[in-house]
Amino acid sequence: TPQQNGVAERRNRTIMNMVRCLLSEKELPRSFWPDAARWTAYILNRSVTKAIKDKVPEERWTGMKPKVSYFRVFGSIGHVHIPVQKRIKLDDRSHKCILLGVSEESKAYRLYDPIAKKYIISRDVIFEE
């Protein structure tokens, strides 16, 4: 029952409060809530907590200090590079997508293409922040 695991329930509440803020701030539809929750948990695992002194959770698990220099604002617009092989002479060199986090499979960003209505994983992104 929730009463037996107050710490986990409180953490879930924190995550869902952050999810609401992320979606509201960028005026994104509620359908993106799983992506916002994944990004929130990713950030919290790389942030300082009162429970762990001098280290972040990720550092406790892996023994290595996490890099956060690649963090970007959730929901921001990113221009994803289109490779030369997939375009012709006068085509755009990039297209706009929405940042939804980072890929779990590779060192790349996870984005959503609203025109094609599909998810994209790419490292070649320039963000409007």
Automatic annotation (TrEMBL):
Any one GO molecular-function label of the UniProt entry: nucleic acid binding
InterPro entries: Integrase_cat-core, Retrotran_Ty1/copia-like, RNaseH-like_sf, RNaseH_sf, SH3_retrovirus
Stretches assigned to the Integrase catalytic domain: 1-65
UniProt record, GO biological process: DNA integration
Protein name according to UniProt: Retrovirus-related Pol polyprotein from transposon TNT 1-94
Originating species: Noccaea caerulescens
Record lineage: Eukaryota, Viridiplantae, Streptophyta, Embryophyta, Tracheophyta
